[in-house]
Write a structure and sequence with these properties.
Belongs to the NADH dehydrogenase family. This protein has 454 residues and is of the alpha/beta class. 34% of the residues lie in helices and 23% in strands. A seven-stranded mixed β-sheet has the order 7-6-5-2-1-8-20.
Length: 454
Amino acid sequence: MVKERARILVVGGGYVGMYTALRLQRKLRSELRGGQVEITVVTPDPYMTYQPFLPEAAAGSISPRHVVVPLRRVLDHCRVVVGEVTALDHAKRTAHLTTLATEEEGTGPDQLEYDELVLAPGSVARTLPVPGLADHGIGFKTVEEAIGLRNHVIEQMDIASSTRDPALRDAALTFVFVGGGYAGVEALGELEDMARYASRSYHNVQPDDMKWILVEASDRVLPEVGEELGRYTVTALRRRNIDVRLTTRLESCADRVAVLSDGSRFPTRTVVWTAGVRPHPLIALTGLPRTDRGRLKCTAHLTVDGVPHAWAAGDAAAVPDVTAEPGAHTAPNAQHALRQAKVLGDNIAHALRGEELETYAHAYTGAVASLGLHKGVAQLRGRTLTGYPAWFMHRAYHLSRVPTFNRKARVLAEWTLSGLFKREIVSLGSLEHPRAEFERAAGGEPSTDPKGSS
């Protein structure tokens, strides 16, 4: 039983936010029913995105709706508020947030009071001041970006198939991916696989007509899987005629020309930016202690260092790695985020009941990565796998980790059906501007806003 009534505010609905709230629902079930505890989750989207499935969603192997988990269904004992926290005054235990309603009303941010704060806003893309990047770059962190990229790639193949301009055709069939981590390598591998398959449906587009270029600033790709598998990955990609440029940076993509630090220039209509992430900008506005890299200073108990009633985990938190050398922090990845959320939920329940807190300790067990259909790499407890076994391990691991039985069953069903039937290669780019046709029919100018508003 908790000592006193507690209002718990969870900022963020990603891995840490959702799993922490889910854990609290289970640990504080009786207190929630009795009204002694309230849990509020503030999140920009009403769903949690399982990001390891984004490359397969982009390739059409998984439906977009099965990559996301609806928060209101899973967190049925929590109050889910779709909005964003814009400011925090932890000394007064108040948060200011904007919602769709506050924007419509024009009354300014709402104020929300709390007793315990969980900061789990996650991360955003880490961009650099590269000329043209803001105008032409494509991100790969959300399900909307993944599906938008799929539509874009197919549309470029349509342009190449129908144009009479050889320069336009060459630019349309040139795809540049910047960043050799999980997101960049897996997205490129899956989309190249999809485009290779899609080219069968075009009478004048062949796989060899397309240029796929991976740009990585360091001397290796996929550092998470180890140096040996990193070298294997580069070799495997190059065997597929993918141009892998190591120790190379993107210096400009202005005027739809990708200029690399090695002097190469590639006219292209596709630049995908996956070169790392940084803590969510909200962290800098909290006034709470941060590291030199902008992450919250945390203890091994997942409390914010020196700040009572404040907790954090995931990408935005610098959590000491007690299984490594002193001073080391856990990596900002899904493997740690999922396990930290469990300990975080338990520790908040322990704190409310006056019990001793647990220490987060998890030794790194390995990594898996997909390089396309039936292709992958994996490192598990010192053992390495490549090719089909690694790809199968990648799917098995993430199927076991995707939340809810409902999602597991649907994803497994889609994989089974995709093995029995041909891929669906269709661009639904018009979904991004659903009112455009009606606006033209009504005599207006089509809006560029996705919702159709001007």
